[in-house]
Amino acid sequence: MPLTLRIAPLLAALTLLSGAPASAQKRPAPVDQIQLARQFFAQEGKCRGLLRDGRWKEAEASCRESVRLAELFADHRELEKKAAYASVGHALMGQGSYREAIKLYSRAVEVARPRLDDGDAELGDMFFNIALAHHALRDLDAAREWYRKAEGTYRAAHSGVNEAELTEEGAEMKRGYLKALKRVFEHHLRAAEEAGADAEVKDIRKQMAELP
User: How far apart are CA 86 and CA 64, in angstroms?
Assistant: First the structure.
């Protein structure tokens, strides 16, 4: 929750205690949405740059500021909010804070739900990240469950590209989904092997062999 929202109830209480009627309280000025968008995308660029450089602690602070700005948008901006929460998750993963990262990735999924469903690869990315965090925590049952969710999403995204109307851009997307699916299978296979789930290992290898 943004700091301003946490402080607001305290300010209201102090005003009431001083004897001023609630109606006399000043309402916050509306946020200039165009300026806010500029600030958000500039901040998000800074956040991503720090993530690329592996400067995890600095990235966390920068990416949390992106979240604060994203939550000020008057419209829904689900994809921008998803990206902001996911970026904080990446920064936490880089610091080994896996449980906190899971919370941020889960929040990214939650805010994106009005725009994305389980057939959208962007959610597949979040499911994969959650699986990796559980895997790092050695919670192999949860990791394997989330790997399966990611696999289902990437499969749906891959098959959702219309072969009959395939453009070069569509072909590139299709290749990207397949590459992502293979990467998830590799991690899922490792988790299944570590869990001693022999039947699951056999099934994953079969599915991998059947991929284009």
Answer: 10
Q: Which two tokens stand for residue 54?
A: 């592996």
Kindly compute the dihedral angle of the four CA atoms of residues 16, 18, 23, 26, in this order, to the nearest 10 degrees: -110
Q: Which token pair is 101?
A: 């990262």
CA pair distance 85, 106, nearest whole angstrom: 9
Pick the CATH number of 117-212 from 1.10.4030, 3.40.50, 3.60.21, 1.20.58: 1.20.58
Count of C-beta atoms within a 10 Å radius of residue 203:
13
pLDDT in tens, 33-69: 999 999 999 999 999 999 999 999 999 999 999 999 9
Per-residue pLDDT reduced to its tens digit, 178-196: 999 999 999 999 999 999 9
Q: Residue 181: which of 142, 145, 160, 207 has the closest Cα?
A: 207
Q: Side-chain half-sphere of 174: how many Cα atoms within 13 Å?
A: 14
Instruction: Name the class of domain 32-115.
Output: mainly alpha
Say which DSSP state 115 is in: T
Show Cβ contacts of residue 4 under 8 Å, excluding neighbours closer than 6 positions. Answer: 28
Whole-model pTM: value is 0.83
The answer to whether residues 68 and 84 touch, using CB atoms and an 8 Å cutoff, is: no
